[in-house]
Amino acid sequence: MENIVMFSIGLIIFILYMVGYLIMVKKANEMQEKKIKNDPELTASYRKVDSIDMDGMGNYGRFPKGKLGKKK
Q1: Which residue of 16, 34, 53, 71 is most buried, as measured by CB atoms within 10 A?
Q2: Is the pTM value of this prediction over 0.70?
Q3: What is the C-alpha to C-alpha distance for residues 50 and 60, in angstroms, rounded to an integer?
Q4: Alpha-carbon distance 32 to 7, whole Å?
């Protein structure tokens, strides 16, 4: 009987802890999204989509390699 009571108390504490943790993560995520939307420096880069840059490494493939020929 005592084991069931102790398990129940522990389970209740664990569930309350997890619910509080998930609420905290959700609020932090909402605050971060709101901060990104209101920051003029960050929104320009997030809104700009580059459809040619498929790998996400930058636009290095678009730059010419240089002039072909002999090096001096």
Answers
A1: 53
A2: no
A3: 13
A4: 37
Based on its alpha-carbon atoms, the radius of gyration of the chain, rounded to whole angstroms, reads 27
- 16: nearest Cα among 24, 27, 26: 24
pLDDT confidence band for 8 (50 / 70 / 90):
very high
Amino acid, res. 1: M
Cβ(46)–Cβ(36) under 8 Å? Answer: yes
Instruction: Please name the residue that has the structure tokens 């901060």.
Output: 35
Token code pair at residue 69: 């020929």
One-character DSSP codes across the chain: -HHHHHHHHHHHHHHHHHHHHHHHHHHHHHHHHHHHHH-HHHHHHHH---SS--SSS-SGGGS-----S---
Task: Pull the structure tokens for residue 33.
Answer: 């999204």
